[in-house]
Amino acid sequence: MEGAMAVGGKIVDLPTLLERRESLRARGLRLVQCHGCFDIVHPGHIRYLRYARGLGDVLLVSITGDREMVKGTGRPLIPEELRAENLAALDCVDWVYVEPRPTAVELLARVRPDVYVKGREYEFNDDPRFRAERREVEGAGGRVVFSSGDVVFSSSALIAALEHSADPYQQRLRQLHASPDLEASRLDALLASCRGRRLVVVGETINDTYVFCDRPEVAGESPIMTLRPVEARRYDGGAAVIARHAAALGASPVLVTALPDGPERSDAEAFAGRMRAQGVEVRSIDAGERIPEKQRLLVGAQKVMKLDLFRPYALDAALQDRFVGLAVEAAGSGCDAAILADFGLGLFSTALVERMCATLRPLARTLSADVSGRRSSLLSMRGVDLVCPTEGELRDATQCFDESIPAAVVSLLARTGAKRAIVTLGSDGLLACEPAGAPLAASDAPTAPDTGAFVSRLRSEHVPALAPLALDPLGCGDALLTVATLALSGGGSTLGAAYLGAAAAAVQVQRLGNGAVSASDLRQLMARVREARLAFVSEAEARPRRRSAAG
Q1: What are the pLDDT digits (tens) for 270-294?
Q2: 2-157 has which fold?
Q3: Contact 293, 207 (CB under 8 A)
Q4: Cα–Cα distance measured from residue 502 to residue 483, given in angstroms and rounded to the nearest whole number
Q5: What is the DSSP letter of 438?
Q6: HSE of 344, CA atoms in CB hemisphere, 13 A
Q7: Under a CB-based contact definition with an 8 Å cutoff, are residues 8 and 93 in contact?
Q8: Rounded CA gap, 454 and 497, in Å?
Q9: Is beta strand 58-64 parallel, antiparallel or unpaired with respect to 217-218?
């Protein structure tokens, strides 16, 4: 306790400093002053300060305040309160003062030290700020001395080295979080704007079934695996889970889909009832013998087999007209957003995809589209605001197998007229892309091998995966597509929409099954991501929190 009080007594405000200085002068004692940032106190600083202390009777160390630090993004690494405490803890330092102005000129004019000590690197420095400080000291009769500097260190170099040796994931997050588009308050406002938004979702409904099995054994008749089902869990997936995500975020979604008639009609009615209970309105055409089902067999949390239990849809012209008509009715006179999702079950032909996009474009302020699987219909999604393919889907559609991802994106945007693309990269996160200037035209599509020159017309941002582990990738793309679309409809930037989408995917990938992602889930995940970054909290900041908790 006594040590803490002694350290605190060394840190002074300006009136106290000036009073002590006058007392020192009256006693004929010499004051030595050093000034700098002292972000990380290293051995070079210790030698420098000890050298300075030996030139007089009292050593004053003034430090630049946080607001005036101009050494780059993320500086200071240590806040001014802790920097002052670090210096005050040194025996060779007598007084510490936090200078709120950008240079020490004004302080030197008030304090008038007998000796002003700077590092050897300033001896031939022509920096106008240092020249002004030197004139002030020497004009008042003081001396400027340069330290011996026999061991040279640099806080900036040390911090740079730490950053280079740090996890690139954390480096990238630090860069992203410095963007105004990713301020916590702005992201929270985008999430809040989802409430009440009218969203039309057009696509196939899928029953995602998880069949949990006992540990496998080898069959007796041949070397094949034997599984015994123990439990089955069913999730309403496909376009249905997109609508469920939207409802969980507070939007008002309408799902336009195909449901079976005839013997399986009861399943369709039960499905519509479940969706209504979650806040989703369902409008459907009668098509198919049953709701398509995708079964996944698991042992523990490990998937060992997938079964696709459906026959592809086949819509005649009349049914296609009815399908498009339902989408128009759902949009009404206009909706905030619409999502077209082709899951590759035959509900959409490439011509129907193009027709649906053209029909919804004037009715939806934000129009997004996506495919599941490597399908050519991605190129039929024309004039949309957002497409969200995987890297494989992107390369298959554009036939850009050897080019860079930005080159493939340029090809996609140029050929479809889409305004932006979010390309998912699995465990590597995603790449959010949009034209750097004017929208890309068909003539901008690359026809020669990728030289990288035309990619300068593309602005792209990499967002790393925000989940610490991946339990189940099912539905991650659907969660991303839903949240990114609603964020764009709320006025969010491409980066803001992509980051929120990445957060939704991170929530989803840490769950087993195809559940809905809520705004609360997103806020909790983003808070955990931000808290994971290196942070320094001063005692002054922490004390009010303790008082509040105690009260």
Answers
A1: 999 999 999 999 999 999 889 999 9
A2: Rossmann fold (3.40.50)
A3: yes
A4: 9
A5: S
A6: 11
A7: no
A8: 25
A9: unpaired
The dihedral region occupied by 432, where left means phi > 0, alpha psi between -120 and 50, and beta the remainder, is beta
Of 319, 321, 317, 310, whose CA–CA distance to 343 is shortest?
Answer: 310
Distance between CA atoms of residues 76 and 92, nearest Å = 23
Is 174-531 a domain of CATH 3.40.190.10?
no
| Cα gap 159→116, rounded to integer Å | 26
- Distance from CA of residue 396 to its chain's centroid? 27
Compute CA 3 distance to the chain's CA centroid, rounded to the nearest angstrom: 43
- Between CA 349 and CA 436 the distance in angstroms is 32
What is the separation of C-alpha 186 from the centre of its chain, rounded to a whole number of angstroms?
Answer: 13
Any idea where the domains of the chain sit in the sequence? Answer: 2-157, 174-531
pLDDT digits (tens, 9 = 90+) for 461-520: 999 999 988 899 999 999 999 999 999 999 999 999 999 999 999 999 999 999 999 999
Q: How far is 144 from 137, CA to CA, in rounded Å?
A: 7
Per-residue tokens: 394: 């992107």
CA distance 177 to 460: 16
Q: Where are the alpha helices (DSSP H) in 399-493?
A: 405-416, 476-489
DSSP structural state of residue 224:
-
SS (H, E, C) 278-322: CCCEEEEEECCCCCCEEEEEEECCEEEEEEEECCCCCCCHHHHHH
The alpha-helical segments, DSSP class H, found in 13-127 are: 14-26, 43-53, 80-88, 105-111
- Beta carbons of 63 and 20 less than 8 angstroms apart: no
| CA–CA separation, 475 and 481 (whole Å) | 10
Angle at 209 between CA 208 and CA 210, to 5 degrees: 125
Contact 484, 191 (CB under 8 A): no
Residue 46: left (phi > 0), alpha (psi -120 to 50), or beta?
alpha
**Continuous segment of H or E residues that includes residue 458:** strand 458-463
With b meaning 16 or more CB within 10 Å and e meaning fewer, what string describes 84-109? bbbbbebeebbbbbbbeeebbbebbe
Residue 69 vs residues 36, 81, 99, 352, 539: alpha-carbon distances, Å: 10, 14, 11, 58, 21
Q: What angle do CA 240, 242, 244 make, to 5 degrees?
A: 70
Q: Mean pLDDT across the stretch 240-260?
A: 97
Cβ proximity of 369 and 384 under 8 Å: yes
